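Dear U.,

For the methods section draft, I wanted the exact inputs and outputs in one place so we can describe them consistently. I've listed the two proteins in the order they'll appear in the manuscript figures. Please don't edit the token lines directly; just add comments below if something needs changing.

First protein:
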Amino acid sequence: MIKVGVIFGGESVEHEVSIITAVQAMNYMDQKKYEIVPIYISKDRNWYTGESLREMSTYKDLSLVPTLAKEVTLTKKDDEFILQKKNGLFKGTVETIDVAFPIVHGKGVEDGSLSGYLETLGIPYVGPSMLGAAIGQDKVVQKQVMQASNIPVVNYTWFYDYEYQSDEENIIKEIKKLSYPVIVKPARLGSSVGIAVAKSDEQLKEAIEEAIKYDEKIVVEAMVKNLKEVDCAVVGNYQDMECSLIGEMLTDNDFLTFEDKYIGEGGKGGKKGSAKNQNSGKLATSGFKIPAELDKEIEEQIYKYSKEAFRCLNLSGVTRFDFLVDTKAKKVYVNEPNTIPGCLAFFFYTPKGKKYTKLLDEMITSAIKEYKSSKKKVTSFESNVLSTYDGSKGAKGKMQP
């Protein structure tokens, strides 16, 4: 069987959401085909493994997790990827894995940090490359890339915290060009953390101060009129991709909040979510109506831009794209990608007949195929240019004595 190392947690405000997503995914993986190895990253960045990490009850008190699992490091040894005991005189192998499956959310893990480490080790892994993950996490850079690819995004402005603190007046003046209401976001967070709508100067300043608590980089966007928020997922890679059905976000708030997404209290008209609570190991999924009721023209635009954005942002695995639709003007805007979405967006595919187990299997299989394909590319030359290099002659930039 293929050993799949499911990596989750991390130093992120979305730590707990990552745990829920990962435990749920591990429960749905095909255990006849895969041997599942849980790998938990604590908030202080230590790595752990052990069967207990597959149970939601393990995380009722996060401080006790280290007592229920073994602390390890992931490394490569003799063409094997091993989880090696971190402490002690003898650092033996605790477990081996064949492919990594990062199920992480937020800054410090989903932003390319983790995928970069996995690429350095040379292990096949599910999900976006380091570049795709980094772009996907930065709400400013992703807009700039999509604009360059003629993919529509809403009007926006952005700034760093120090710029606001040193030149608040001009920053506010620039934002007001967008016209109220506006939405203020930390540029590199997800799960709607730190986001607020501002309809006045006072609310704007409060929203910016709140966003700055979470990130140094802030983005402010114009609010779309006649708004309908919809989502569409894409699974695959640049060669082969499949869109899900389109889902409409249901909420009484100005935007889909953290509570709407994960606590299950924010459905339309105060409707309860499908998840009783976070201890159930399930995420609230009733915040969406699937399929969404849309004009055919709008639907076609969403499918088109989903695939184009997936390609230009260098994504793979599964990504859920948030869209903002002006239903009167029939204009579609890509809001942002969620490169490792909560629930891994399985509920967008279920109505198409693709079960969660099948979706996970496709993602793992695709990652292994991509890895094998990449191994065929030239990555180094047989000749060693250093064998004839004489640093004492003709060296560029040689310093004079």
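Second protein (the one for the lower panel):
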Amino acid sequence: MSELTRLSAADLAGRIHAREVTSVQVTQACLDRIAAVDPAVRAFVHLDAQAALAVAAQVDDKLRRGDPPASPLAGVPVALKDVFTTLDMPTTCGSRTLRGWRPPYDATVTRRLRDAGVVIVGKTNMDEFAMGSSTENSAYGPTHNPWDLDRVPGGSGGGSAAAVAAFEVPLAVGTDTGGSIRQPSAMTGTVGVKPTYGGVSRYGLVAFSSSLDQGGPVARTVLDAALLHEVIGGYDALDSTSIDAPVPPVVHAARAGATADLAGLRVGVVREFRGDGYQPGVLRAFDVAVSRLSELGAQVVEVSCPSFDYALPAYYLIAPSECSSNLARFDGMRYGLRLGDDGTRSAEEVMSLTREAGFGPEVKRRIMLGTYALSAGYYDAYYGQAQKVRTLIIRDFAAAFERVDVLVSPTTPTTAFALGERVDDPLAMYLSDLCTIPADLAGNAALSVPAGLSDEDGLPVGLQVMAPAMADDRAYRVAAAYEVARDAADGGPLTHRVPGIEVVGEALC
């Protein structure tokens, strides 16, 4: 493995901008790494090496002319979850129904990456239409966890997390609806951030659940995540839910947190996020992480958020209801897959045949759940009640943040489970998002930072840090301070210590 692929995005950017190394060299190193290990990891569904190298060359040319870099990440490679539209690459959302579809426009996130000179190398695998917790629901096959190729990388954004964990790229962009950035990050030992809802534009993000979907960064360090957050974040007039306010000072918070303690900060441990269903090794790693926060000077207290116990059932009424509406557009009439159009069938028959073949089992399950929850006679009993629970969860967060500055919990109840283990048990699969869903329902900022390895199976555990809306910088400050303390105690960054990463490389390079 090239030394360049081991460096952080911040280090790579510094070297590129100082002209110690070229963006073309860095991009080629990533492409070589992808060629070597992705046949096993399967993080990518589309690569465009030629376009990536062309963008990298443009960055290098500008730097040689003495022009300032377009952004602090100019010239650094990134992978983009295949749910963001891209003019020059297919956008499939992991679904057969969009196989080969080339959108007529770039998503705002895509455009901001291009404007910043960030090099998009390709699109990453995902659960179909972002519906899943393991990246096994993709029409293009599952992604494998680089720590153990027989285990899932989490979902729905397992491709983005796996690409970063396997050192294929230093950065990736994912989306979080019920935990689809944070949960894969916890299972792959990476940093994953769900910004405040409305903090990153949803324009061009193919909608699953419009009141929940939110794009965000995946990285190997807290600072790298913050740098990417500032590139993709900010107000967008094309998104009616976009917040018309400056991006919170996340880069400053990450830098400050890495050089300071947490004296005076109040940290609340969520009482409801432990007990039955939680892997003992995950809880032990979490308790060690909380102890380190205390050692850094934070005041740690237990906080109860009783409505969190109802977040999972509320989410699985709200999200499917919104998905049943959003996915109605995939009807075989305008774009994407179209079956049965032989001149003998009605439009309704063509739609039925197209959707039967184009949607996978999980997507069909959620469409049916949502359609039922919105149907006459059941709306108030299901969707309406779920929205009332959502209000209670928002109130629990508000009450908690009157007592503490941030809340912490395990990111996931368990470490990465075996491929195929939960495919036939939807409830067990849904429980993977038990800890991440409340922040999505409330729209708060939340992130997952690696919290070491479980002493049961040697797999990564995530520490979730939750902050109030538009206080994303608080979460970054805590995570950055913790990251430094963790690395000092453990002898270095988590991903640089695990032999499993090298096994992937040595087996295929």
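Candidate sentences for the figure legend, describing the second protein: Residues 3-308+390-504 form a domain with the Amidase signature (AS) enzymes fold (CATH 3.90.1300.10). The mean pLDDT is 94.

Thanks,
Y.
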